[in-house]
Design brief:
Blueprint lengths: L10 H7 L8 H5 L8 E3 L4 E3 L5 H4 L3 H5 L5 E9 L5 E8 L3 H11 L5 E3 L4 E5 L2 E6 L2 E8 L5 H16 L23 E3 L12 E8 L2 E9 L3 H15 L5 E4 L2 E6 L3 E8 L2 E8 L4 H16 L5
Antiparallel strand pairs: 1-3, 2-3, 3-4, 4-8, 5-6, 6-7, 7-8, 9-10, 10-11, 11-15, 12-13, 13-14, 14-15
Length: 300
């Protein structure tokens, strides 16, 4: 299984050398660092903001900042009377959608998922989970067969401070279940489909025996905004291509995204891309189901 690790070697040194000053809202994030029976803080916790996050996670900081990262509370713990160490990172992403976006960008569909917060996953001494506007990353060292228990206990203590973790983005409930790849959902905050004016895109991967494709939803402020955005997108993406429209849904071929289907339902744009001809029938069925899901009574 693939794993993603940041530059953990030398983390304690980096925290000691590059502490950040506090700013409005900082105390709330730091207050989420828990008191853990059997563990003590190895040093004073540190808070990082957008201008200093790179000092802690180097090149990975850009991805967090791209999701409008607010701040991160970092605590380094040591095991009382033992050799174990525990690192806790609590990232405040400003809103649940942004937290989901960065969380989903780091998980893999084949990860070992756990019902912790909205969702968590465990692999090789790490436990990462989503809770409200927070993305929490835990890592244990030298804890032996107590590693998973220590990580779970730490997660429970943090969740007790956060309270209600909320749930997945409501619009994900509109995506059809047939052929849907579990845990493939993502949220792209900026430059969706490579276009600067497209934002707030939810994406879900689908796979059939003949291949795969992506389905997407973009939520706007209202029907007029959605209509204007669709017109702008088609003028940019479908200009000069052979396209067809049925019931307000437009189909065309993109040189990079293959078969594209896009339409509007109320304040939402919805569609399909990356669909090769072999899966076009399945993609059209998914698009129809997605459109139906967006107009049915729901939490949307």
């Amino acid at each position: 299984m693939k794993t993603r690790r940041y530059r953990w070697a030398g983390v304690i040194l980096a925290v000691a050398i590059f502490p950040s000053a506090a700013w409005p809202g900082a105390v709330k994030t730091l207050d989420l660092l828990p008191s853990l029976p059997g563990w003590s803080l190895a040093e004073k916790p540190v808070l990082y903001g957008p201008e200093s996050l790179f000092e802690y996670i180097d090149g990975a900081a850009e991805a967090f900042i791209g999701y409008d990262f607010v701040d991160a509370a970092v605590g380094q713990y040591k095991q009382d009377g033992g050799a174990g160490a525990l690192s806790i990172d609590i990232y405040d992403m400003g809103r649940p959608l942004n937290a989901f976006g960065i969380y989903a960008s780091e998980r893999y569909p084949e990860s070992r998922f756990l019902p912790i917060g909205v969702q968590g996953y465990l692999e090789e001494g790490t436990l990462n989970f989503l809770a409200g506007k927070y993305y929490i990353k835990l890592m244990a060292y030298e804890a032996g067969d107590k590693t998973e228990a220590a990580l779970r206990a730490c997660a429970a203590a943090i969740l007790a401070k956060i309270g209600d973790p909320g749930g997945f983005p409501a619009a994900l409930s509109a995506f059809p279940a047939e052929n849907r790849t579990a845990n493939s959902e993502k949220f792209i905050l900026k430059s969706f489909l490579g276009l600067e004016f497209l934002k707030n895109g939810l994406v879900v991967s689908y796979r059939t025996g003949d291949g795969g494709f992506d389905a997407f939803v973009i939520e706007t402020a209202g029907e007029a905004d959605a209509a204007a955005l669709l017109t702008r997108y088609l003028a940019k993406a479908a200009a000069g291509t052979a396209s067809s429209a049925t019931g307000g849904v437009v189909r065309f071929k993109d040189p990079y995204l293959d078969n594209v289907i896009i339409g509007r339902s109320g304040r939402f744009l919805f569609g399909i891309n990356k669909a090769k001809d072999a899966v076009l029938a399945a993609a059209e069925k998914t698009a129809a189901g997605l459109a139906a899901g967006l107009v049915s009574p729901s939490k949307l």
